[in-house]
Task: inverse folding
């Protein structure tokens, strides 16, 4: 998901409960007709692909089956191949490092920016917020293209600033990884910072003042006052960022295609590579299923939080 | 002293945040010899529109533009209509299975789309829907649908039921009450969700990359931009002009609407 589409969690309010209405409407077909289009769409375009991924992952499904059909059931062979291969584990480890580095940087930096916004004067604050909105709105592929230009070896401005003209960031695994981290962090901080700032503004000023009168240092105020109040919001942002960074695909695919030498191949890139490049649709689907299972852990935590608010 | 330090830090943050976008625009307006000079100048000293002309005369530019608009428009409109119906059922009616439906919508909102590239490709291939803009619109519609339902439902909840009942008492039909009374109150919600849908569909890259394979004419702008350099190689001026043209609609829409819906979205984020 592009940074700009990271929609904040929408407002949830309780439906007015009216026993009278409930009794009257229980048997009406209208609710079901109204949700029918949404349900049909969800079944066809979300549930079915999910199930299909599961089915292909237990089949022998390669180039031949793609063209002629007639895939055969092979049980857990694909999973066995995947889990006993070395590559999968190194990809998984890389994905974990990728997620951890990005999320720590995003949450840390956006907390700093949000606290900064709170203390700035009006003009400076509006300027910084507008800049953040601009970065937030920049489309992923546009930003990715810009970063190719910024880090270009001969003419890129980064190499000029660092006085290392001619150095290729895209040829070295570690450097490529770093460029991708910078790109994703740059794209993700605005949403997180603006959301945290919106949360900070809901804390009454008196709380800060009384904490300061009581002799609290800035650090104490943050850990004892701000953090406990904003804890649910930190949890929300961290879990959203974990999901987004973990499944991030277009930036990596466009900048490095998982290279050089697999140095930036994370799980989604790996699934795509073995499916579309090696035509191992079966193995690619197995990776997809594993990705869904791993994400499900983060998703369930999120879902529980949403449902707590719902009830 | 502290104040100066704070403002200094803010200026650095501001510069880092805005520089990539600034550099895109500046490069797009610089003549090629300035772009290739040994010392890059931070301002477009001799501004030119040549690169925009190159980008716009690139093969297929207008058809990619049209494809992007069509796919985005179809996805947004479809999502609005379908989710308005569902949101109404959730917010205003009581029925068995409502809770299950709400949970399903929440879960769908977090669907791991990136993991579904492979099965989606196979399904499209089996159903003869590869290289089809309709399939692409369908996917984008589904990606934005859950968020649209949840948001519109939130806005519907905020419209007091008494307002609607008053209209019913005055003799309006349920449909008229909806159209004349609720719909206008929903306007900010419709705007916020359209904005979200527009940005999602306009920016989407992974699925076009997978679903539009042979028929290059069916590609959308993100794919065009990502392959631009295959054709134009080291013409960074034209590449940045292309990126600017692609980003412009989103930036304009975002900055225009952000002020209006921003408050609502921020409030939602706080509650979430």
Result:
């Amino acid at each position: 998901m592009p940074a700009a589409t990271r929609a904040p969690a929408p407002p949830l309010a309780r439906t007015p409960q009216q026993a009278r209405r409930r009794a009257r409407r229980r048997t009406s077909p209208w609710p079901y007709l109204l949700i029918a289009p949404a349900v049909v769409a969800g079944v066809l375009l979300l549930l079915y692909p999910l199930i299909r991924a599961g089915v292909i992952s237990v089949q022998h499904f390669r180039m031949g089956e793609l063209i002629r059909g007639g895939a055969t059931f092979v049980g857990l062979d694909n999973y066995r191949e995947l889990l006993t291969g070395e590559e999968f584990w190194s990809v998984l480890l890389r994905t974990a490092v990728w997620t951890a580095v990005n999320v720590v940087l995003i949450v840390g930096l956006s907390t700093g920016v949000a606290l900064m916004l709170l203390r700035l004067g009006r003009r400076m604050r509006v300027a910084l917020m507008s800049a953040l909105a601009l970065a937030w709105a920049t489309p992923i592929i546009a930003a990715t293209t810009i970063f190719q230009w910024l880090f270009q070896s001969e003419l890129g401005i980064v190499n000029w600033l660092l006085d290392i003209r001619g150095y290729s960031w895209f040829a070295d695994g570690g450097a490529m990884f770093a460029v991708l981290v910078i790109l994703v962090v740059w794209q993700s901080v605005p949403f997180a910072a603006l959301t945290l700032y919106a949360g900070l503004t809901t804390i009454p000023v008196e709380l800060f003042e009384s904490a300061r009168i009581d002799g609290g240092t800035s650090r104490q105020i943050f850990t004892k006052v701000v953090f406990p109040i904003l804890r649910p919001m930190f949890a929300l942002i961290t879990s959203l960022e974990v999901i987004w960074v973990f499944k991030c695909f277009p930036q990596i695919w466009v900048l490095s295609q998982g290279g050089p030498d697999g140095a930036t191949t994370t799980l989604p890139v790996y699934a795509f590579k073995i499916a579309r490049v090696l035509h191992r649709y079966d193995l690619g689907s197995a990776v997809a299923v594993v990705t869904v299972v791993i994400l499900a852990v983060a998703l369930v935590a999120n879902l529980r939080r949403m449902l707590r608010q719902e009830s | 002293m502290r104040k100066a330090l704070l403002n200094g830090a803010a200026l650095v943050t501001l510069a880092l945040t805005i520089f990539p976008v600034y550099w895109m625009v500046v490069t797009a307006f610089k003549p090629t010899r300035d772009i290739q000079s040994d010392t890059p100048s931070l301002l477009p000293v001799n501004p030119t529109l040549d690169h925009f002309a190159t980008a716009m005369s690139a093969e297929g530019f207008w058809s990619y533009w049209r494809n992007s608009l069509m796919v985005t428009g179809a996805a947004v409109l479809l999502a609005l209509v379908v989710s308005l119906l569902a949101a109404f059922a959730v917010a205003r009616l009581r029925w068995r299975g409502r809770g299950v439906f709400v949970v399903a919508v929440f879960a769908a909102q977090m669907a791991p789309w990136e993991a579904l590239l492979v099965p989606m490709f196979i399904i499209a291939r089996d159903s003869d829907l590869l290289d089809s803009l309709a399939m692409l619109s369908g996917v984008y519609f589904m990606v934005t649908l859950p968020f649209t339902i949840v948001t519109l439902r939130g806005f519907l909840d905020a419209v007091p039921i008494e307002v609607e009942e008053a209209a019913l008492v005055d003799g309006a039909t349920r449909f008229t009450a909806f159209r004349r009374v609720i719909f206008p109150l929903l306007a900010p919600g419709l705007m916020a969700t359209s904005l979200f849908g527009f940005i999602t569909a306009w920016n989407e890259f992974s699925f076009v990359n997978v679903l539009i394979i042979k028929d290059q004419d069916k590609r959308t702008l993100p794919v065009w931009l990502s392959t631009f350099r295959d054709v134009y190689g080291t013409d960074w001026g034209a590449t940045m002009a292309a990126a600017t043209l692609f980003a412009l609609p989103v930036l304009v829409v975002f900055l225009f609407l952000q002020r209006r819906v921003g408050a609502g979205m921020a409030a939602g984020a706080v509650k979430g």
User: Anything to note?
Assistant: Chain A has one domain: 43-310. Chain A touches chain B through 110 residues (CB under 8 Å). The first strand of chain A starts at residue 59 and ends at 60.
